[in-house]
Amino acid sequence: MKLVTKEVAERDKNVYPQNWPAYNAAQVEEKLQFLGILSELCSYIPDYPNGGPGRPRMRLGEMTFCVVSKVYERLSSRRVSSDLEIAKDSGYIEKVPHFNTTLKYFNEPTLTPLLTQLIQLSASPLKDFETTFAVDASGLSSAFYSRWLDYRLKGDKLVKGWLKVHVICGVKSHIVTHIVVTDGVKHDCPQFTELVRETAKNFKIDAVCGDLGYSSRANVQLVWDLGGAPLIPFKYTANGKSSGSSAWRKMYIWFHMNGEEFYKYYHQRSNVESTFSMLKRKFSTRLMLKNELGQTNEALAMVLCHNIVCLIHEMHELGLDVEFQKSAHLFPNLHIKPDASII
Description:
Blueprint: H1 6-12, H2 20-42, H3 60-73, H4 81-89, H5 99-105, H6 111-123, E1 132-141, H7 148-154, E2 162-170, E3 176-183, H8 192-200, E4 207-209, H9 217-225, E5 229-231, H10 246-257, H11 259-266, H12 270-283, H13 292-317
Parallel strand pairs: 1-4, 4-5
Antiparallel strand pairs: 1-2, 2-3
Helix pairs in contact: 2-3, 2-13, 3-13, 6-13, 8-9, 9-10
């Protein structure tokens, strides 16, 4: 059977109308609800003991709140101080840090695993809603004179300061369920295993969509073993030999015998492109920190902000109750609070 082209699949795909009352309410109330959800997430961060003499350090949970708030506001550390004063008056933090302290905490090594697990925790309220996922990667830059697309499509020399963000997201809500941040020249395919395995810890996987860059026997077999359909096209040089992967041969036959049905489901992969579009339009394509650790934490904070915004939309769209207590035990760097907290 002849495969349908990607253009035909795109033309025939379903169109989902926007729920404008829910969208408008989410936009109007976003900032107030954002602070509440962020505060709830940061409350799961344990306080590490102060070491050595000198001034006591601020609580890591509060500093994480300040760091993520700065990324959300897209303001300088000086200008965001006024917003943090409002957060203090609202009871979200006890003290407003000096603006230099906020910048220094971007370079805190312990912040990287914490932000990664907060991203995973922030996606957990949608675990009964999302079952199909899409994987892709895109670049974020601190070099204002260069563009990711110039490197990605034209082959221009890669300047320093580029980071590559590998994500897996739900195709309905665009919520990011896991993220890996690498330098700009890392290939996409090796990150697939971690993205899918981490997502499977908290979500039931029915299907994973990925482009040709993820086409490998190991990746196809991984999704198959987790009970999902690996919707990854085959390269024209691929053959149907299993070579130790029975899933590869089964999907190869289905791909060539039922191409129209394959592309009917595969087009959901475009939702990860929408996720990157949402992320970059709202929070910029550029990272403001100077060193790699600070840029990594800034990129993670940016994705956490995106997830919170997605949750706010689903609160209005689905009537979702945002509750993190039931999933917090899955993340070893976070602590379990004695009482459940529902926003």
